[in-house]
Design brief:
The chain is of the alpha/beta class. Helix content is 39%, strand content 13%. α2 packs across α12, α3 packs across α4 and α5 packs across α12. The relative contact order is 0.17. Bound molecules: phosphoric acid mono(formamide)ester and norvaline.
């Protein structure tokens, strides 16, 4: 049987996401009521980090423990990978020893090479190009707060980075409008937008116009991991790309604000917005835990009969 991986958001269908959200709601409810649910006893998750992390590490580690399994965390610099062992050999070895692997790395190509030599499911915990687990949690959070995301408008303000690319894939799957406003030189790569209808992707020169009538405004750091040398230059280039009260004011009155975190108050977002009443960032961060538990359960055990009614995505 083919092993399923989760390397990009588009690896799953909308039907699968509906199932995952149903499971997430059930798993989250048990967690909130302190009811143990341990279907992954004797299973081991290996996590490989080539970049820093707080949320991804804690949510996967806590999630696997809560599901009854064990976790091994590898920082590449402490392993033979840090001394140049080929990624294909690492994949061949560690996937004979563990049941599932999560990787945070640089180019998407690295995780694809790992997956091609893996015997077990591989999950993308962020690459330069994508961050699917983030948008899995974000869309769950949107639906939890506001109901179906279909037909809504999500505005992305800032760098057309890994998180932005992943929102774009989600727009097609969930059928929402995706507005993007990025400074010159930091726009979406043309080939990424190629297969998108105008209803799923609209590019704006002016961030205020991108935010107008949006149901959700979201942003991310001006400088992603791996681009630190450009920090000072980016501070100049992104100066107009701060989500502030004025920007929230042109969105719909019930618009939410989201940010994958970590945030830099006074840069990509003002404190008044991220710490204000429309911000969903703490629920968004928490939902990484619950959605990823559903994801690991699905990748390891397949579909489990659910009791609730189906989610309207
Ligand atoms: N949002 C997110 O992935 O956070 P970390 O970098 O802390 O894992
Ligand atoms: N775009 C950011 C996301 C961090 C979670 C980065 O890649 O650093």
């Amino acid at each position: 049987m083919d092993v399923r991986h989760y390397l990009q958001f588009k690896d799953f269908t909308r039907h699968e996401y509906e199932y995952l959200f149903e499971r997430t709601r059930w798993i989250k409810d048990l967690f909130k009521r302190y009811v143990p649910y341990q279907p992954l006893r004797d299973r081991t998750l290996a996590m490989v980090f080539e970049k820093h992390s707080t949320r991804t590490r804690v949510s996967f580690e806590a999630g696997m423990h809560q599901l009854g399994g064990a976790v091994i965390t590898l920082m590449t610099r402490d392993t033979q990978m840090g001394r140049g062992e080929p990624i294909e050999d690492v994949a061949r070895v560690i996937t004979r020893m563990v049941d599932i692997v999560m990787i945070r790395t640089f180019e998407q190509e690295i995780i694809e090479r790992f997956a091609a030599h893996s015997r077990v499911p591989v999950v993308n915990g962020l690459t330069d190009e994508y961050h699917p687990c983030q948008i899995l949690g974000d869309i769950y959070t949107y639906i939890e707060h506001r109901g179906s995301i279909a037909g809504k408008t999500v505005a992305w303000i800032g760098d057309s980075n890994n998180v932005c690319n992943t929102w774009l894939q989600a727009a097609k799957i969930f059928d929402f409008n995706f507005h993007v406003a990025s400074p010159a030189g930091y726009e979406l790569e043309p080939e990424r937008g190629e297969s998108y209808e105008s209803m799923h992707l609209e590019i704006f020169g002016d961030p205020i116009e991108a935010a107008r009538d949006a149901d959700l405004i979201t942003t991310d750091v001006w400088t992603s991991m791996g681009f630190e040398k450009e920090t000072e230059e980016r501070k100049q280039d992104f100066a107009r790309y701060c989500v502030n009260r004025g920007m929230m004011a042109v969105a719909r009155p019930d618009a939410l604000f989201m940010h994958c975190l970590p945030a830099h108050r006074g840069e990509e977002v003002d404190a008044a917005v991220i710490d204000g009443p429309q911000s969903a960032v703490w629920d968004e961060a928490e939902n990484r835990l619950h959605t990823q538990k559903a994801l690991m359960e699905y990748l390891l055990l397949g579909r489990i009969k659910t009791q609730g009614e189906l989610w309207s995505t």
